[in-house]
Each structure stands twice: as C-alpha cells, then as structure tokens.
Amino acid sequence: MKYCSTCGAGVERRIPAGDQVLRFVCLSCETVHYQNPKLVVGCVPEDDAGRILICRRAIEPRHGFWTVPAGFMENGETLQQAAARESMEEALADVEIGSLLSVVHVLHAEQVHVFFRGRLRSPKIGAGEESLEVRMVAEHEIPWDDIAFTSTTFTLRRYLEDRAAGLDRHHFTELDRRPRS
Q: Which CATH number describes the domain made up of 38-177?
C-alpha cells in the first residue's frame, strides 16, 4: 500500500498508539488501514447416493487440480449464502447448505477457509467459468494426490470420518431450511 484510500496522501508502516501490529497509517489524515484475513467459504456437496461433488480448477492458483466448490465471501451475504453461491458459480449446482464442517486458518495466504456440509437439491451439475470439469465421486474415487489445497484435503477427511462414524451427514435444521431473502 502506497497511498491512503481516504485522502490520497502517502502512508507509512508503523504501530499505531494502543496497537501491537504494524499497520499502514496515513501521513496526513492519520487513518489506520487494517489488513485482515479474507474469508473463503465452501461446502462438500453430496448427492442421495453418497457421492461428493468435486471441481477441477480452471483458474490459478492450482489450475487443473481438484477441489470442492469454494471461493471468497462477498459483502452483504452470510457464510451459507456464499457457500451456495460458489456451488452455483463453479458447478452449476443447487446446494442446500447444512451445518459447519471445518474452519481452517491459512496463515501464509492471510485467509480463513470455512466449509459446510451440503446436499444437492438436483442432480444437474456442470462446469462453471472457474471449473474445467465437475464430477460426482465415491469416496474411493477421490483424487487425493491431485487435491488443490491442504484445507480441502483436511475438510474432505473430516467429512469422511464423520460419515464413517455414523454421524448425520447433513445436520440440517429448520433454521437452515428457511427461505433466503
């Protein structure tokens, strides 16, 4: 960061009074510019046969590798809405979002990844603009060596552990089923 987004003056990195972290501070108006982790939100969508929806990435980072539908949260949406939107954008999939599955801190990327359980409302899927292809896979078909991100591997393993332990796969509640406005 070189310039203040409030007044356009130059900024410098310093620890503001009462803080303990280096921040960009405007040399003119003294605005402190906080840089905080970005939220990446997604889900593990499952069909009635127990297969999981995965997407082969058409974008960097990790072009050509597999992941579950996920992406950056937008202002004005809930975590669940972001997960559902990403499923539609990446896999043209209408997904009902269930309970929280994992929260992964990705410190090197300054991100927090949040994943939910999901259930496909329809068998119709297809590759969105950010996917080369999409596929429904059984547990033994997951391409573990070609998974794009450690957070996805972690999340898929937690999902499968829950399923093997006989835990409800979706954990949907009446609150989850309310129409979204």
A: 3.90.79.10
